[in-house]
Amino acid sequence: MNIQDYLVPHHVDECLAMLNAWGGRGRLVAGGTDLVASLEYGKAQAEALIDISAMEDLMGFEIQDHELVVRAGSTHRQVSAAPRIRQLWPALSKACGSVGSPQIRNVATLAGNVVNAQPAADAAVALVALGARAEILSSGGRRLEAVENLYGGLGQSRIDSSREILVALRVPVPDAGEVNVYGRVSPRNSLCLPIVNAALSLKTAGGTVLSGRIAMGPVSDRPFRPERAEAALQGVALKDRAALSEVGRIAGEEANPRDSCLRGCSDYRRQLLTVLIRTLLEDAAAQTAEEA
Ligand SMILES: Cc1cc2nc3c(=O)[nH]c(=O)nc-3n(C[C@H](O)[C@H](O)[C@H](O)COP(=O)(O)OP(=O)(O)OC[C@H]3O[C@@H](n4cnc5c(N)ncnc54)[C@H](O)[C@@H]3O)c2cc1C
């Protein structure tokens, strides 16, 4: 690590000016739970760190124009503890609540979870299933990108944290009949990366799935959407357990988990996914039954 300066901007314009002044050699840091280790092990480089955790214009979340706007300073704890988010986006709430440990969740941000671009990232998997978009600012202007399009390979984000700021994540408000769920399988609840995780967001009417988005990790170089399983969801009756099992089977077949000495062999993880997706579909079915 060869950090020459540590800067603390108070608003977005000041932060962009700092990034520009360092000409690509400065880098944003939020909670630091990923970046500091990457710098230490030489996996990331920076000459200046620009700490965005005190920026008032990156704090908090609100519902605006039929979207939940989660600003980039929001931590996993803040998001998982918000009653409105738990009610409307249980997938996001639960995913954020399963990251790391209370200490990690107190400082680590959703934005960092997305930009770090790991396929197992719990909140990112939920955001992909929910069809979230990222709002990104640079000196060149503002752009909006689907979260699922921000991946350029394992650990490679299309957001350049030495020149751009992810200012907010925007999650559509579910319409009537829409449900979302999240689950993960890991050897213990805290301080443990998932063997597999998944989130589902379904549009339903009268107990039948109209369409659905599924995101799974870590079974690819990014949060992965199984296209055939999503297609198989269309028209499925949520009380048809055989059909739900079949969607789980197809999702498992499409996944490509690696053999891992930490996470288990590929076949085992594929089997887990099959069961996880079926179980999540059953949870979604129970949610729609409660709402009916
Ligand atoms: C012990 C431990 C356990 C963990 N367990 C889990 C787990 O169970 N599940 C999980 O998903 N993750 C886990 N993590 C990973 C980590 O906590 C998350 O990915 C976290 O959300 C990263 O957020 P951060 O604010 O700490 O990001 P940082 O480390 O500050 O930054 C990460 C990357 O994002 C960039 N960045 C940050 N904010 C912005 C922004 N607004 N705009 C542009 N670029 C930005 C940084 O430059 C850096 O490249 C764990 C980490 C540790 C240390």
Q: What strand order characterises the main sheet?
A: 4-5-10-6-7
Q: Please write the string of helix (H) and strand (E) elements.
A: EHEHEEEHHHHHHEEEEEEEEHHH
- Ends distance: 56 Å
- The CATH architecture designation of the largest domain is 2-Layer Sandwich
Count of DSSP-assigned helices: 11
CATH class of the largest domain: Alpha Beta
**Radius of gyration from the alpha-carbon trace, in angstroms:** 19 Å
User: What's the story with the biggest beta sheet?
Assistant: 5 strands, antiparallel
Contiguous uncertain segments of 5+ residues: none
Q: How helical, in percent, are the residues?
A: 25-40%
As a percent range, the share of strand residues is 25-35%
Which cofactor or ligand species appear?
flavin-adenine dinucleotide
CATH structural fold name of the largest domain: Uridine Diphospho-n-acetylenolpyruvylglucosamine Reductase, domain 3
Based on the model shown, name its key terms.
about 290 residues, alpha+beta, Uridine Diphospho-n-acetylenolpyruvylglucosamine Reductase, domain 2, Uridine Diphospho-n-acetylenolpyruvylglucosamine Reductase, domain 3, Enolase-like, domain 1, 3 domains, 5-stranded antiparallel sheet, 3-stranded parallel sheet, 11 helices, globular, binds flavin-adenine dinucleotide
Report what the structure shows.
The protein has 292 residues and is an alpha+beta fold. The protein has 3 domains: 5-51, 2-Layer Sandwich (Uridine Diphospho-n-acetylenolpyruvylglucosamine Reductase, domain 2); 56-172, Uridine Diphospho-n-acetylenolpyruvylglucosamine Reductase, domain 3 (2-Layer Sandwich); 178-291, CO dehydrogenase flavoprotein, C-terminal domain (Enolase-like, domain 1, 2-Layer Sandwich), CATH 3.30.390.50. Helix content is 36%, strand content 25%. It contains 11 helices and 13 strands. It has helices spanning 12-22, 35-40, 76-81, 83-88, 90-97, 102-107, 110-115, 122-129, 227-233, 241-254, 266-291, and strands at residues 5-7, 26-29, 48-51, 61-64, 67-71, 133-138, 141-146, 151-153, 156-157, 165-172, 178-185, 196-205, 208-217. A 5-stranded antiparallel beta sheet has the order 4-5-10-6-7. It has a 3-stranded parallel beta sheet with strand order 1-3-2, covered by helices on one side. It is globular, with a radius of gyration of 19 Å. The model has no long low-confidence stretch (mean pLDDT 96). Flavin-adenine dinucleotide binds at residues 27-35, 52, 72, 99-100, 104, 108-109, 111-113, 115-116, 121-122, 159, 161, 165-166, 191, 193.
